[in-house]
Every structure is written in C-alpha cells, then in structure tokens.
C-alpha cells in the first residue's frame, strides 16, 4: 500500500513538472503575441482621440476659410476715399495725354521725314500737305490714347484697391442712372447738367448735382425757361 502511494505521488510530480515546462516553452516561443496584443490595445485606445483631433482641425480650417471669404465679400470703401481715388485716376489720365500726343507727333514726323520727296500729288494734294496732316492725325491719336495709358498705370499702381474701385464705379454709375433727369427736354436755354456725372469729385458735389437735376426736372415740368 505504501509502495502504491509513493508511485502515485511520483507520477503526479512528474506531470506537474511537464505542465510547467510546456507553459514556459510556449511563452518563450511566442513573445511577439503578447507585444502585438498590447500594441493593438494601445492603438484601439488612442485611435479615438486622434479622430477627434483631426475633426477639430478640419472644423477650424473650414471656419477660418469661411471667415476669410466673408471678410473679403464685406470689405467696402467709403465714398470720400473713392472720390479721392477717382480724382487721382483723372489726374493720371490727363498727365499722360501730353507725352502720348508728343510721342505720336514725333513718331509720325520722323517717319514722314525719312520718306523721299515725290512731286506726284497724293489724293489730289501735295505730298508735304499729306505728311503734315498725317503727323497731326498721329498726334491726335496719341492724345486720345493718353487716358487709356494713364488708367492702366493707375490700376497697376493701386492694384490692391482695384477691385474696390471697380465695385464703387458700378455703384456710383447706378446712382447716376437712377437720379439723373430725363434728357428728352434738353435745350439750349435749359441744358441738362452733367448727364454722366463726370464733374463730381466729392460727396458735396454729388449733392449739388442732385439739386441741379431736381431743378432741371422742375423747369422741364412747368416749362420754365424752356423753348
């Protein structure tokens, strides 16, 4: 009986030792499984904050873009600044009329001076007369081109204010069309005052222009001073 008991304890002890050895070998042969499971748990726990941070960044960017667009759309210019820029633009146009006219005269004069003299009439006129007329015509063309060149240089020098000036030009023209008098009653004794509003250089002059338009309507309606 004692011998049987000793055999059972011996067999049980060997079974326990074998089980411990198998467990140790399993852990030593697959260390990456534990690491991968822990890593996957970390990824699962950190993915939600990353998603929240990305959504916040996207929302902030969209809000900033919308605010920028709204600021650009609502950006305006007061009438005094507009009239000052309009007056500056008119000065640019007037200043460049002279050099453009001189350039046209000089270019045409130089060209005609290089031509050989031919006594044959041109269009029934002497050659010299034709050359003089052509030179004067070139000067007139240069004079008419001056405002265009001046306007281009003004827009290049004020490129930042160019969109606002264009917008204010349209708005100003709408006011002119809305408030100017009907030109059908225009006459020598009662001429319509500044039909296109070209002489308006300030807010006070615009108000004076409105008074003149009302006065013209009154005279036209009651036939005061009209032929």
What do you see in this structure?
With 227 residues, this protein is an all-alpha fold. It is 77% helix and 0% strand. It is built from seven helices and no strands. α3 packs antiparallel against α5 (127-157) and α4 (97-113) packs antiparallel against α5. The radius of gyration is 46 Å and the shape is flat. The model is unreliable at 1-7, 19-23, 26-48 and 67-73 (pLDDT under 50).
Layout of helices and strands, plus pairs?
Elements: H1 2-29, H2 31-74, H3 79-95, H4 97-113, H5 127-157, H6 162-179, H7 203-222
Helix pairs in contact: 3-5, 4-5
- The helical percent reads over 70%
The overall average pLDDT, rounded, is: 75
- Following the backbone from N to C, one meets helices and strands in this order, namely HHHHHHH
Shape: flat
DSSP, total strands: 0
Describe the largest sheet.
Answer: none
Number of helical segments with 4 or more residues:
7
Low-confidence stretches: 1-7, 19-23, 26-48, 67-73
Strand content: under 5%
| Ends apart, CA distance between termini | 153 Å
Round the Cα radius of gyration to an integer and report it.
46 Å
Secondary-structure-based class equals mainly alpha
């Amino acid at each position: 009986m004692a011998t049987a008991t000793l055999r059972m304890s011996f067999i049980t002890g060997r079974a326990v030792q074998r089980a411990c050895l198998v467990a140790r070998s399993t852990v030593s042969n697959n260390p990456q499984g534990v690491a991968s499971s822990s890593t996957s748990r970390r990824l699962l726990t950190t993915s939600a904050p990353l998603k929240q941070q990305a959504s916040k960044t996207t929302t902030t960017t969209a809000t900033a873009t919308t605010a920028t667009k709204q600021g650009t759309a609502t950006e305006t210019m007061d009438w005094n600044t507009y009239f000052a820029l309009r007056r500056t633009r008119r000065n640019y146009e007037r200043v460049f009329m002279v050099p453009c006219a001189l350039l046209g005269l000089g270019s045409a004069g130089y060209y005609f001076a290089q031509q050989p003299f031919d006594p044959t009439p041109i269009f029934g006129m002497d050659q010299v007369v034709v050359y003089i007329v052509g030179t004067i015509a070139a000067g007139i063309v240069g004079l008419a081109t001056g405002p265009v060149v001046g306007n281009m240089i003004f827009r290049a020098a004020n490129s930042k204010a160019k969109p606002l000036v264009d917008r204010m030009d349209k708005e100003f023209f709408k006011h002119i069309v809305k408030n100017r008098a009907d030109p059908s009653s225009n006459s020598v004794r009662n001429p319509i005052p500044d039909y296109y509003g070209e002489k308006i250089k300030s807010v006070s002059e615009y108000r004076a222009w409105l008074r003149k338009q009302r006065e013209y309507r009154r005279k036209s309606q009651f036939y005061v001073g009209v032929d």
